[in-house]
Each structure stands twice: as C-alpha cells, then as structure tokens.
Design goal:
The chain is of the alpha+beta class. It has 24 helices and nine strands. Strands 1, 2, 3, 4, 5, 6, 7, 8 and 9 form a nine-stranded antiparallel sheet that branches.
C-alpha cells in the first residue's frame, strides 16, 4: 500500500511541480529508501544501471558535435527563400539527424539560425523543427533519451536489450504519415515577426584572405546571416563601407567583415576558411577573454588600436570594442581609443602579472568563449562519433562499450575536457531514471501490482492483448503530456510489463508502446524538451500547440497502435 501511495503522490507531484521533476524524484528516492521499500544494493544498482550509463555516455560524447561546424553547415543548407523547399529540407534533415544524434542537441543547434533567418518568420519553422526532431528520435534506439531510458528499464528487468533498429519500422511509418500531416497543417502556424533583441554592441573585425573559400560566394551562401548571436553589420571594401549588408552581397578578397553581438560566440568565426580576426596575428588563444574599460588617465586615450602596441605593452590583443552612446564603424585598427571604451582582450600568460594593467584599465570580468574544434580534431569528433554509432548499429560492439572508449579518446585528444564532461553530465536525468528504477523495484518487491491480474481476469472478455496495448499507449501518452517524456516512460513501464504478463502478450510490443507513447508530446509545450525550447523562441501560445498538435497526436496514436501489431506482433 505504501508503494502505491508513493506512486500516486509522485504523479501528482510531477503535475504540480513540472519544472522541478528532478526534485520530485529525489524525494521519491529518499522516501523509498527511508521506508525500507528498497535495499541499499538496489539503490546502488539503480545508479549504475548499464542502460542508464549508456544514455549518459551518449549524451556526453554528443557534446563534441556541438563544437564542430557539421550542424551549422546542415542548417545553412536548409534555409532558403522558398518556404516549401526550406520546410521539406528542414523536416527531412532534422528527422535524419535526430535518428543518430540526441534530438535536443539538434534543435538547440538549429534554433538560433532559424530564428535569425532573413527569409521566413521563425514561428513558421520552429514548431515543425521540434515535431520533426520528436519523430526522428523514434527511428532508432539512440534517437531520443526516452528510448534509451526504456531500454535501461528493460535491462534492469532481466529482459534482452532492445536492438538499435527495433524502433525503425514503426518510426518510419510515423515520419511519413505525421510528416505529411504536419506539412498540410503548416498554414495554421502563427505569423509572428522576429522579436527585437537588444544585443551587446561590441564590434568584431575580421578579414577575408584572398584564398578564402568565402570569396566569390554571397553572404547567404556562406552562411554568414545565420550565426548564433552574431550579426554581420558592415563590409569594409577598399575604403568603401557597405551597410546594411544584403544576403546577396558577394564576398571579395581582402574584405573586412564587421560583426556585432555576443563576444562569447567569437570562436564561431574561426570555423570559416580564410576568415581571420583582428587579434589573430598575435597568436594569443581565444578560449578565455578578459573584458576591460579604458581608464581616463590611460596613455592609450587618443591612440588607434593599430598603433597602441597591445601585445608588447600588455601581452594582449583586442578582439572587440564597444563605446556607450556611439555606434562604432569601420576598421577596428583605425578606431581612436577614448576613456570609457569597452575592450575584449585575448590575453597571454603574462597579462595578469603586468604592473601597467591597473594603470590603464578597469578590469570587469573574464569571458569564457564557446570552444570550437578545428582541423584533425574536428574530423576525429565527427568521424569518431558517427563511426561509433555505426559500429553499435550493425552489432559489432555494444553501444556502452564503444561510447566509453570514444569518451576516453575524446578526453585524451583534447576534443573534450574533464570540465566540459562534468558540466554536461545530465545529472537530472540520472536522478530521475535511477529513482524510477527504484520505484519499479519497489512495486515488484511489495507485490503492489498483483491486483492487476485479478482485474484483468474479471474483465477477460474486455482485456485482449490489443486492448492492453491501447491502455499502455494511452497511459504513456497522457503522462508525457501531463509531466515529461522521461518521467512518463519510467512510471508506466512496470505497469506495461505486468499487464503484458497477465495477458500473455508479447512484452516487446508493450515496451515499444511505452517508448512511442512517451514520445507523443505534441499538445503541450512542457511535455518534451524540444517543445519547450521552441515555445519562447517562436513566441507561440498554448493554442498554437493545440491547433497543430491535436491532429498530430491522433494520427500518431493510430499509426503506433496499427504498426506495432503489424511489425512486432501481439
């Protein structure tokens, strides 16, 4: 009885505190352990579950792809002036990417370029982006955390692990059927303009070399219009200033491109071939920058950056500059410095020990830039990750083993740092799944679900294997709309196994019903991470999700409940 009370209390807690599902599960874990409903060994085992550790390794290793230009290149290919072609490319490439990468990472990478694109309203594309990521995630074992969570529960129950392509047949039906419906429903999407965002007005000066791949292509073709938090505001060409910059402007050799925006994103610019920063010649690293203000008594006042001799004086180089109350323009090196100017500096090892720093600057803060991979490290990151997924998909090696080896390689080669790994470990998901595993074990220990057998036998004419499948799917779907996809999968899984056992049904069919049902979040913006990510970015309202999501949800359910019996069997 205690376990059932905790189960019901957890559901109500998740509904009431949707933004704090990790804390709700944390309380559940403590309650189960304190009341001796689970043993110490079961607590330890739940945190070290192989399926759960596989999920964590996969999410950590996928961080390296965010540091490459792979997804940015895909995004640049997607966006064009024709809405239909843009929509089709967006849907097809997002579903494919989400099948082999974590779909949350795919959406987070594409979010800013789509929001900043000059051709289409972001609200016409962001909701299809989220739904495409959800559908793509259903294609494979690694496409979404939901599938990996279900697999960890399967392994913990003593059943054979799900295979990489066990989801694919049903997932393909969903991608084709729901994709076509989503395309037909796209006119119902709102037509919101881009919200004005007040950007920091730092100016970043870059130069295009004569041999650059950017030369001869337009700003649009080079993907310079869709950068995250950076905007191309001016082009300085042979003393002539081009502003504003149109998407069709052709880049020429020795052009100086001036960007404005978030300086922490400056490393994105280093990914473009032949595009060098004003500070590049100094040889100083861009991974940690310092923000300073020029003091009134500084001897730099009245000098240009080109003649100030920053490297010799301060062991530093200027990356960007801004001036309150005035929009700076033109070549960075020709700007005459004034008291109160804000500078972002790439600094060397001697910077902090120089005794002239405090005489010339007020030190504000250090800025940690986004770390991007280049050269062989970028090739290793992309090839290593995709190769590891391929090896696991064809059964050469287990996903856990290949991801653990890959993480070691990334750490040894510097593609990932220990600090990045610690920061990106999904601690909330780890706690949620571990607690859910414990709840499942507590339900089994106490026999709390034994009453389901008598319920089934009381209505044996009603409860066929197919009706049981419908019940499991609807439970998982309802839970994912009320709480979250991960919590839904964890809570409904033990019920599905017990019901399958009592009905002598195929357990794999019921397991897949849980996985697909927990991913069926189309009506609520809070049930799935990608929906929540696009909710604010696209300025959507709840009714926007309802208008498009209800038909999507109905068709999705019909396809799942038709395809599982057809492909898996009951």
């Amino acid at each position: 009885m205690q376990v059932l009370v905790l189960f019901i209390a957890t559901i109500f807690g998740l509904i009431r505190f949707q933004a704090h599902s990790d804390k709700v599960f944390g309380v559940l874990l403590l309650a189960l352990y304190v009341s001796s409903l689970v043993s110490t060994q079961q607590v330890i085992g739940s945190f070290s579950n192989k399926g759960l550790l596989t999920l964590i390794l996969l999410m950590v290793c996928s961080v390296v792809l965010e540091k490459t230009k792979l997804l940015r290149l895909i995004t640049n290919y997607i966006i064009g002036p024709n809405y239909r072609l843009t929509w089709l490319r967006l849907f097809s490439l997002t579903t494919f990417s989400s099948a082999i990468l974590n779909n949350t990472a795919v959406v987070s990478t594409m979010l800013a370029p789509i929001r900043n694109n000059p051709h289409h309203k972001a609200s016409k594309l962001l909701l299809p982006l989220s739904y495409a990521a959800i559908l793509g995630g259903t294609l494979t074992l690694v496409g979404t955390s939901t599938n990996l969570i279900v697999n960890s529960l399967v392994i913990d129950s003593g059943l054979p692990s799900l295979e990489f392509f066990d989801f694919t047949a049903v997932g393909l039906c969903l991608v084709v059927g729901c994709g076509l419906l989503l395309y037909l429903l796209s006119p119902l999407l709102p037509d919101h303009g881009k919200r004005h965002v007040q950007m920091r007005d730092y100016i970043i000066d870059t130069e295009v070399s004569a041999q650059s791949d950017l030369v001869g292509k337009t700003v649009e073709q080079n993907g310079l219009r869709h950068l995250e938090s950076l905007f191309l505001v001016e082009i300085l060409r042979q003393g002539r200033l081009i502003s504003p910059v149109t998407p069709h402007e052709v880049i020429q050799p020795n052009d100086r491109l001036l960007f404005s925006g978030d300086v922490k994103k400056v490393t994105i610019l280093t990914q473009f071939d032949g595009l060098s920063l004003f500070a590049s010649d100094s040889g100083l690293p861009l991974n940690n920058l310092s923000e300073v203000v020029i003091r009134p008594e500084s001897h730099l006042v009245g000098k240009t950056l080109k003649h100030a001799g920053f490297r010799a004086l301060f062991d530093a180089a200027v990356v960007a500059i801004k001036r309150d109350g005035e929009a700076l323009s033109g070549k960075l090196g020709d700007v005459e410095l004034q008291a109160g100017d804000y500078l972002v500096l790439a600094v060397g090892e001697d910077f902090s020990s120089r005794n002239n720093i405090s005489k010339n600057f007020f030190l504000l803060s250090e800025l940690e830039t986004d770390h991007c991979l280049e050269g062989w490290k970028e090739k290793l990151a992309i090839g290593g990750f995709l190769g590891a997924i391929l090896l696991a998909a064809i059964g050469v090696v287990s996903l856990f083993k290949v991801m653990l080896i890959l993480l070691g390689i990334f750490l040894l080669t510097g593609c990932l740092s220990a600090n990045e790994v610690l920061q990106r470990v999904p601690k909330n998901i780890w706690l949620i799944i571990s607690s859910a595993l414990l709840l499942s074990q507590a339900l089994s220990n106490s026999g709390a679900l034994d009453g389901m057998e008598s319920l089934v036998h009381s209505y044996d004419q009603l409860f066929t294997p197919f009706i049981g499948l419908v019940v499991v799917y609807l439970l998982a779907w309802l839970m994912t709309e009320l709480v979250t996809n991960n919590a839904a999968a964890a809570l409904v899984f033990p019920i599905s196994l017990e019901l399958a056992s009592n009905l002598s049904a195929n357990p794999q069919a019921y397991i897949l019903a849980v996985a697909f049902g927990a991913s069926a979040s189309f009506i609520s913006p809070y049930g799935y991470q990608t929906n929540l990510m696009v909710f604010n970015a696209g300025q959507y309202k709840l009714q926007d999700f309802v208008k498009v999501g209800v038909p999507m949800c109905l068709l999705y359910g019909v396809i799942v409940l038709t395809a599982i019996p057809a492909f898996i069997g009951l």
